[in-house]
Amino acid sequence: MRNVYLITTFLVVLTLSVLGLRGGYFTKSPIDVFPDTLFPGMKFTSKVRTQGGFSFFSDGRSDRLPPSGVVAYSQPFRGDDSVLYLGKAADGSWVRGYPASLKVDLAFVQRGRERYTIYCSPCHGNVGDGNGITKRYGMGATPSYHDDRIRNLPEGDIFDVITNGKGPAYQMGGYADKIEPKDRWAIIAYVRSLQRAQLGTINDVPAQVKTELGIK
Amino acid sequence: MSKHFPKSVNKLPLQIIIYLFVISGLATAGVTYYMTPKYTRVGYAPVQPVPYSHAKHAGELGIDCRYCHSNVEKSGFANLPTAQTCMNCHKIIKPNSPLLAVVRKSYETNQPVPWVQIHRVPDFVYFNHSVHIARGVSCVECHGQINQMEVVGEAKSLTMGFCLECHRNPAAHIRPRDQVTNLDWKASSEAEQLTMGAKFVHDWKVNPPQSCSGCHR
Fold first, then answer.
1. Domain assignment present for A46
2. What are the two backbone dihedrals, phi and then psi, of residue B142, each rounded to the nearest 5 degrees?
3. Range of the domain at A105
4. Average pLDDT for runs of 10 along chain A of length 216
5. Which 173-212 residues of chain A touch chain B by CB within 8 A?
6. What was the ipTM of the complex prediction?
7. Of B45, B89, B94, which has the smallest distance from its Cβ to A25's Cβ?
């Protein structure tokens, strides 16, 4: 009987030393205890998955590019509000101000701040001075929002830059795929508030905040 | 009368029974430890076609998760970024790096980068990223500290038990919505987390399903 326990102990030690403990990193495909080959269709059905593969098409991908001329559901269509979707007035010039359908209030600007922080601040910096984190890695040409050229740009022009990008060979890529049109307007509102903030003087600070800050 | 069997044989049936208990105990422990996702899946860190470092981009540079996984708030599926997303910066930063050759090729030819999927739940699980994000469930709850991972590996088991742990007690896991993508955020104390969590559960009407059809359809 002693031998049986010795062999058992040996097997336990062998298992532990071969399989190791939990928590290690490994690069090989995980072992499936109930593999699909033994239980076909139980875990993974042959459906088309987002960003997955699909051998039916010659390029092997499940996500299809829209045929030319197709307008995606979220994209502007003929007759839609050209101010909201293109930043252009009826005569084709860049609009100043915001689309009539949007309410520019504190919540709108805060939404803009959130979107700005995600998508713009890596290059343009948290205060819009062009000193985002990417500058340290060689992104040289990011302009500051705080010069008169950009201060005086019509809102519609800024909208177009966010949508389609800007610069030689589009150094700034377009963000139409990432930022919804309404959010682009919210970002513009926030950028305007950043620009205003740089021109602020002591007289702009509300009296109550002045006391809190200890400023006379 | 000669002895056919030694006396110790009398104990043998009992010893065999005891041994059966021991061996079945060991087998149960072994199966539980080695044949569950905590061992088989956690730590899966495949070699990716591009040696992209989340520790660098999300951790050190502080780029928000949503810069690249841009549909995660709007869609059930958290998308991988397009090559254009990488090229937004890498047109100018390290434009000729051989490590980025695959990305540049994808950008030029319109063919996707063949990333290897790491986290994958079975098809009978309908997980929706956007609803979890909208109710203050941070990325870190299921994906671990991605912002510290040089190479991304699966950090949590993603079993049904794992899901239910949070679905039964959401207050211990949800956080302010503006901190969802801040993977280093922690409530100041456990008690604080529970009070705050309970408030969010009430205010946002968080009612995670525990019925089968909540997640299995």
1. yes
2. -105, -30
3. 82-202
4. 90 93 90 89 88 88 86 73 87 91 94 96 93 90 90 94 87 91 95 92 84 79
5. 173, 177-178
6. 0.88
7. B45
